[in-house]
Every structure is written in structure tokens, then in C-alpha cells.
Amino acid sequence: MLTQSISELKGIGEKLESQLNELGLFTIEDLLFYFPFRYDSYEVKPLTELTHNEKATIEGEVVSEPSLSFFGRKKSRLTFTLQVEQFAVKAVMFNRAFAKKQLHAGDTVTVTGKWDQQRLQITVSQFKKGESKSQAPIQPVYTLKEGVPLTTLRKYIKASIDAYEHEIPEILPEELQRAYKLPERPQAIRQMHYPDNRIMLKHAKRRFIYEEFLIFQLKMQLLRKHHRESTTGNAQSYDNGKLTSFVQALPFELTQAQKRSLAEILKDMKNPHRMNRLLQGDVGSGKTAVAAIALYASITAGKQGALMVPTEILAEQHFQSLMEMFEGRATVALLTGSIKGKKRREILESVRAGDIDILIGTHALIQDEVEFHDLGFVIVDEQHRFGVRQRRTLRDKGLYPDVLFMTATPIPRTLAITAFGDMDVSVIDEMPAGRKPVETYWVKGEMTDRVLSFIQKEIDQGHQAYVICPLIEESDQLDIQNAVELYNQLSSVYEPNIPVGLMHGRLHNEEKEEVMQEFAENRLKVLVSTTVVEVGVNVPNATVMVIYDAERFGLSQLHQLRGRVGRGSDQSYCILLADPKGDVGKERMRIMTETTDGFELSEQDLKLRGPGDFFGRKQSGMPEFKVADMVHDYRALETARRDAAEIITEERLDKDSRYRPLRDLIYQDKQIMGEVLD
Ligand code: ADP
Ligand code: MG
Questions:
Q1: Which residues form the Helicase ATP-binding domain (predicted)?
Q2: Does ligand 1 come within 6 angstroms of the Cβ of 290?
Q3: Which of 144, 274, 275, 565 would disulfide-bridge 572, Cβ 3.0–4.6 Å?
């Protein structure tokens, strides 16, 4: 049985067992699926195809008796000449004096080692008598822990393949295997470890990439189907007439992309199943406008709505703008941690009684004390900042409310289908007309003076500027100290007629609000800030965004910050002060100056950082694949997604016995399936 402990293998004692356990290897199956992270190739190639200074394997005839010399206390050098093709190659072997007795003129040997193209010399690390045919040409290399030599791991993996190969179950139905010409599972496992050649290896990998993606997609889509079907009767019959008049009263015409997204959302609302949708769009693309219309729709259907945002400042801004939009149409209230006492009790009471139509707030919204009369629509802004549990808690406050997640972090399409495979996605990929793209420049730290005079020039023209100061990771304290220093510096650089403000996370809410208010009213010209201005804040008169030490920010964050400007009709500028050391840092700055398209940026970011880091270390829930790579194997992912959709729609997992093994495997995943099966 594949579930047997590795200690069943002859030769694995207690010590080795616990060492292997540390590598996550407990069962035979674990060993079989412990795939190499690379392969050493011992393929014999013609001398002309070898690369200087790289590892090579050659085969030849020993033409002279090896000569042995000693140096130092225990060191030795064995040299001999090999006839390879028509060349005489010098072979050098260190500290293996014993080999002198084994190698003689006339022997054929295969040697592996570092190749010196200029001197036609090889520094041998491995040798074997006889022709290369007698050796495995491609050798697996595994991730190791101290104490477990590579040869040991190879030995036991090989042993488990030999002993258990016939027990490895096939899980893909034949029709899929045949459609993509995938090798069978047992054979593919052997080839993953000991490939006969590169082509066999490629097919084995192809199989596991597809298998991993298919299983993943089936799980996600099952979950999604479950979300949809487990809830019925939440159709919201909104009032079309009122909705139309509301939209017409807006001071602008919706963009095509906004109209499309809105239609998708409204369709979900009308439908008796619960909506679980992600609304993606760049900063300023008009997501909030769409969300507000949807909220209003829900209110005309007699329901309440909730909007949860990550920061108090943002909550307050949304509160202000929604109050204006809903003037005379709906009652809006704000609930944050800093609203206390009698006022808080009153708000909670009115929400419970249904007197408040829309409640806006931070995490405060998910506390137990918050009870709705009839919550029908939930919006979670910047959803990646909240954990899965928090999102769910808010959702569970209503009886099957429709849920809309919003994010201004454009997520590459590649990641969106994996990360959010259980959601529907709407994308606003178009900016409202008349916006001028922000001009972005990257300058070295030594140009700071010129940057400061540029700010002065813009201010002289009536505009305002943000200055974001260096972010010091893990230290709130230092962040603030930095901000204060920069604030003092700029206050002394500029004349008193250019008032500078300071904003950071440690200010009290009233102070923050006051500073923001002063900046919004153009009483402050320059706002020195930490990244707290990152999300949401809207001051259209600000046309300059200067970011100190820009190399310390991720591309997405830089893009978010840049989104604070370019909100009005005047040309805006983003200046990145940065002295990146590495190539990746330079590349990031270059990309920032070349594109303002958030989706393009995120694709580039993904390429530079890889999917693991894309969401930062806090982000959970990104799947890990053994063989597949979401970016590189994107096409396979698409294929698997399509196939999974078909399998789910036709209910083959439950109805078609050929899909039984796949079904069993998927239903084993307690974490995901717990929700579906309970
Ligand atoms: P987001 O939430 O995507 O950052 P908002 O909905 O806050 O974007 O919109 C940004 C600004 O653009 C707001 O001032 C909003 O009133 C305005 N806006 C939204 N949609 C349009 C549109 N279709 N045409 C013009 N301005 C718009
Ligand atoms: Mg917004």
C-alpha cells in the first residue's frame, strides 16, 4: 500500500526515518511524489558541443598509464590522457589515488566533470569504466536536509518505484489521457525520477501539470457551484425606475466597462442564488461608483447594505461621498472603532431596527454587536486586506446576502483564475474619459533638490503635492520618525506661504481627518505622509506624487500611490526617487515609468517576483503546485479550467464511474470540501 510508512523499506531505520520525516516524507506515496527540483545530465555529447567551465560527460579510451602525484599531506592528483573522437583530452582527478589501480591503458571509461574547452581538459568528479550506455544518462537531484545524502534519497525513491510502481493508481479517465496524449501515472512517476531521455521527462511533467491544475480547478469550481446553489431565494427585485433616475442624476456618464460590470452585478442580484463576485479595476476607474449604484438597487429592493473598508480614513471618505450621492434617497451611517458611547449605541439600534439603509465601516462591522434588520448586500473594499474569516463573518450577518469584493490591485489574469477560482470576476478596464495618464519619472537620490524645486513650480501654479517617505519595514516607530524628519526638512526648505502637512498612522483620527481636510481644502500645499494615503483618498487638485526610496515598495504599491494623483483634469506627475542596487529594482523603476496600466504592471510584477510573493507575505490561500507553474504553464491552466467546467456541468464526478478515482481524490480534501459536503 502506498500509504505504508517509509520505514517498511529495507534499510530505513529510526534515524533515517525521522530525517526523512523532516523533509515531509512519511509514506511510500510521499517518496514517489517527491519530485526532483532539477536533473544532472550525463549525456555524452560531441566535444564541440560542450560548454567551457560547465559540467560535461565524455567517453574515451585511456591512452597512457595514469600518473599519480602527491602534494600536501593527504592530497593527490591523478592524470591520464583520453582519446575522445580524434582529440587527446587530459583528465585530472584529485584525491582519488585508488583509481590508479583501476585504470589502465586501453580501458574505455566514461568521466563526468568540469570541462575546460581551451585546454581540452576535464576535472573529473565521477568516473566509471565502460561505455556511457551502461549508465543512467539523466540523474535526479532532490532538495535535501542535512544528514541525508543525495545518494541515499535516490536509493530509496528508486526502491519505492521498483516495489510499488504497480500499485500507483491511475486517476485520470482514459478519455482525458488520450485527448492530451498523457503518459499513464505509474510510468510518468518513474520518468519524473529516472527519465529515459528529455522527451519522456517532458511528457511526464506535462501529465502532472495537467493533473495538478485539473484537480485544483475541479475543487474551485465545485466550491463555486456550491456557493451558488446552497443559497436560493435571495433574489432582489430592485426598482428599475428608481435605479435609472439615480444613475441619470450622477454628474457623469458611466463608461462602457462600468456599464458592463454593473449589468453583471445586477444580473447576479436578480438571480435567486447568492452573488460571490470580485470587481477589479485600477484606482480611479470608477469601482465605487458602480458599487454605490448596486447598493442603491438593493435598497430599492427593501434591503440593507454594508460596505467594509480597510482604514478609517477611507471609511470616512466613502461615508462623505455616499451621503452626497444618496442625499434624500437613503440613510447612510458610519461605524468605526473610534465611534463610541451613546452615538455608537444609537447607530447600532437604528441598524437593528432597519432605519439605516447603508452602514459603512471598518472591521467594526463584523463585531457581534452589529446586527442588521435585513442585510441584502455586502461590499468588501480592498478585499485582500481582510482575511477569509473576516469576509465570511460579515457575509454571515445576513440571510444569504449578495457579496461584492472590490480591489484596485489589478490581478493578472493568470492569477485571478487561480486565486479567485471560486468567484465570478468583473473587470473595469477603462478609465473615465478626459483623464490624462500620470507622467512618471525615475530620478536618483542626488537629484532631490531639483525635485523639490519642481514641486515648488507646480505649487506656484496652484497645485498640491504628496511626498511619501521611506518605508521602514517592521518598524512603525522608525516610519514615523522618518516622516517627521522629512516634514521638518521640507518645512524649512519652503517659504511659509507653502504650508506643509504631516500624516502618519500614529495620529489620532481627529488629527488625521483635520490634516486630510486641510489638504483637501488646499490650505496645505504639501502633504508629507507614510503610506497611509495609499488607498482611496481623493484630492483632485494634487498633481505631484513624490516617492522617496521608491525601490523599497512593490510595483503594485507604487501604482496605488501614483493613483492618488491624476484625479483631476490637470497633467499630473509621479517622481520616483530611487537608487536601486540590483537589476530587478532597476527594472521595476523602468516599468513604472513606461506604463500606467495597472493590469500590464501586475503582469510584469508577477514575472519579476513570481506568484508566491505577488500578494505579499500576508496573503494566504494561494495554491501551491508541485510541478506546475501558474505563469509558465498558463495554457495548461486554461485547458484544465475548461475541462473542469465541463466535468462539473455534466456532473461526471458523481455520475460517470470512470471519474470515480478523481472524485474520491477531490472529496478527500477536507479543507475545501468540508464546506461543500456539510
Ligand atoms: P475607484 O473606486 O475605482 O477608485 P471611484 O469610483 O472612486 O473610483 O471614481 C474615481 C473618481 O472618478 C470619482 O471622483 C468619481 O466620481 C469619478 N468617476 C467615476 N466614474 C466616472 C465616469 N464614468 N466618468 C467620470 N468620472 C467618473
Ligand atoms: Mg474607491
A1: 268-428
A2: no
A3: 565
Q: pLDDT tens-digit profile of 373-407?
A: 999 999 988 755 555 556 566 666 666 788 898 98
| Ligand 2 centroid – CA 439 distance (Å) | 22
What is the pLDDT at residue 672? 61
459 C-alpha to ligand 2 centroid (Å): 26
The pLDDT of residue 359 is: 96
Ligand 1 nearest atom to the CA of residue 287, by list position: 3
CATH class of 439-595: alpha beta
Atom of ligand 1 nearest to the CA of 428: 3
Q: Is the CB of 611 under 6 A from ligand 1?
A: no
Distance CA 428, CA 407 (A): 11
Cβ count near 278 (within 10 Å): 20
Residue 481, number of CB atoms within 10 A of its CB: 14
Residues of the chain with CATH 2.40.50.140: 43-135
Nearest ligand to the C-alpha of residue 259? 1
Confidence of residue 620 (pLDDT cuts 50, 70, 90): very low
Q: Tell me if 217 CB under 6 Å of ligand 1.
A: no
Q: Residue 318: CB within 6 Å of ligand 1?
A: no
Q: In this structure, what C-alpha cell is assigned to residue 526? A: 504639501
284 lines ligand 1 (CB under 6 A): yes
C-alpha cell at 186: 505509474
Start-end ranges of CATH 3.40.50.300 in the chain? 240-428, 439-595
**Cβ neighbours of 204 (radius 10 Å):** 24
Residues 272 and 234: beta-carbon distance below 8 Å? yes
Residue nearest to atom 5 of ligand 1 (CA): 286
Name the CATH topology of 240-428: Rossmann fold (3.40.50)
Residue 281 in contact with ligand 1 by CB distance below 6 A:
yes
Mutate-to-test residue for ligand 1 from 285, 321, 324, 430, highest number of ligand atoms within 8 A of CB: 285
pLDDT at 409 over 50: yes
- Whole-model pTM: value is 0.68
∠ CA(182), CA(185), CA(186), 5° rounding?
135
Ligand 1 lined by 66 (C-beta under 6 Å): no
What are the φ and ψ backbone dihedral angles of 576, each rounded to 5 degrees?
A: -100, 115
Return the residue matching grid coordinates 450622477: 250
Give the sign of the dihedral formed by CA 312, CA 318, CA 324, CA 326. negative
Q: Which of 62-66, 130-134, 506-510 comes out lowest in average pLDDT?
A: 130-134
Q: What digits encode the pLDDT tens for the residues 209-260?
A: 999 999 988 988 888 788 777 777 778 889 999 999 999 999 999 999 999 9
Quick one: average pLDDT of 130-147?
76
Ranges 138-142, 438-442, 472-476, 551-555, most confident: 438-442
78 lines ligand 1 (CB under 6 A): no
Ligand 2 centroid distance, CA of 282 (Å): 9
